[in-house]
Design goal:
Strand order of the largest sheet: 15-14-12-16
Strand content: 15-25%
Radius of gyration: 20 Å
Shape: globular
Low-confidence stretches: 1-23, 33-39, 172-197
């Protein structure tokens, strides 16, 4: 390792922190409060499929037949703090949801047609997972998140610069730093065509809830509700932790990994049993029974709902169904719900890649493990 790189790594861990974060290591850090960018409660509006089918943009939609299900969980392992319990009876109408997460390819089309500026670009920075930081950006100004040294407030990071200002979705070379503490730089040279194909088909990241809302509106769609996302993630299985059952991915054979999460000792070493250090292309891994890719793992997915904890069990009427719930009308901090977990999740510290798992984040926050997909009413 060069002396220059060693000095940069030492200085990186001495920089001040932008904020404290919650006890969940895989939780996306939140931006400090901003004077702009905090939305009003945008309505869950979009046309129905037959009205807009000829003008749809973005990933292919998959039809989901509605029905009854129990949202959340009453299992002992479910989190009361996160609002995973108690379970609630829900009745959903038919709807459509994107087959994959929105990719860089589709987001580039959106930006090209609208000249939209993302929240990360407005703020001038975003949160990047430290092993992914471009080597040149280790020399640039950045700050470590207090208590979570694997999160870096990287200036210049955005959807088109996913690993820091020196990186690009059009880069002819991809570099990663896959393990602590060695921090050996591994670069794989690629032709420009190969790099574009790979990076454009990865999920767009460093997008906020605001950005996702605007993309879905442009695509003639909308963000899915939390209930829709969870119903789709379950794949018709009832009272299970995952769409394939209750077997944790660590218990699945290496060549049959159903989800992209962390393997090994976080954050010291990712064994990459599933083949990836970070996010995987949007249509890799096997789809769930509804034909949806990466509905769990890969990147956290933003949904429409404000984040609040459900009512207590005694306040839920035993035989009452919530019909097409859209969440509360507001929340204490204005936070929105994220679902599905990400490539940073592992059962030893953050089991939030279950179908009923949920987290919150500010609507203008972004990071290298957060993306989204869109939905549409039937």
């Amino acid at each position: 390792m060069s002396a220059l790189l060693l000095m940069s790594l030492v200085s990186l861990f001495l920089r001040s922190a932008p904020e404290e974060v919650s006890s969940c290591s895989c939780k996306t850090p939140e931006n400090p409060p901003q004077t702009t960018g905090i939305p009003e409660n945008q309505e869950l509006v979009a046309g129905r499929f037959d009205e807009v089918k000829d003008n749809l943009r973005g990933p292919k939609l998959v039809f989901i037949e509605g029905g009854k299900f129990r949202m959340g969980s009453d299992k002992e392992t479910a989190s009361l703090v996160d609002g995973e319990k108690p379970s609630r009876k829900v009745l959903l109408s038919d709807f459509w949801i994107d087959e994959t997460e929105v990719s860089n390819r589709y987001f580039l089309q959106f930006i090209s047609e609208t000249n939209y500026t993302t929240d990360a670009e407005k703020h001038g920075w975003s949160f990047v997972f430290e092993p992914l930081i471009h080597p040149l950006d280790k020399l640039a100004e950045s700050r470590v998140v207090s208590g979570r040294t694997w999160w870096i407030q990287s200036f210049g990071a955005s959807w088109k610069h996913p690993f820091g200002a020196s990186s690009s979705i059009f880069s002819t070379q991809t570099c990663s730093i896959p393990t602590f503490p060695e921090n050996e730089i591994l670069c794989e040279g690629k032709t420009n065509e190969e790099a574009q194909e790979n990076l454009l088909d990865f999920p767009v990241v460093h997008v906020s809830w605001n950005d996702a809302f605007e993309f879905c509106k442009w695509a003639q769609k909308r963000l899915p509700t939390e209930a829709e996302f969870e119903y789709a993630a379950r794949g018709n299985l009832k009272n299970k932790d995952f769409w394939w059952g209750d077997q944790d991915p660590d218990e699945v054979k290496p060549d049959q990994q159903p989800v992209n999460i962390w393997q090994g000792d976080f954050p010291l070493n990712n064994t990459k049993v599933d083949g990836y250090l970070d996010a995987a292309p949007v249509s890799s891994f096997q789809p769930n029974p509804f034909g949806l890719y990466h509905i769990l793992g890969n990147v956290w997915e933003l949904v429409f709902d404000f984040f609040e904890r459900p009512k207590k069990s005694q306040d839920i009427k035993k035989d009452t169904f919530l019909v097409d719930p859209k969440g509360p009308n507001t929340s204490t901090k204005g936070d929105r719900v994220m679902k599905g977990g990400s490539f940073m999740c592992h059962w030893t510290y953050c089991h939030r890649y279950k179908v009923y798992s949920r987290l919150s984040n500010r609507p203008d926050s972004s990071s290298s493990n957060t993306g989204f997909r869109c939905a549409l009413s039937n």
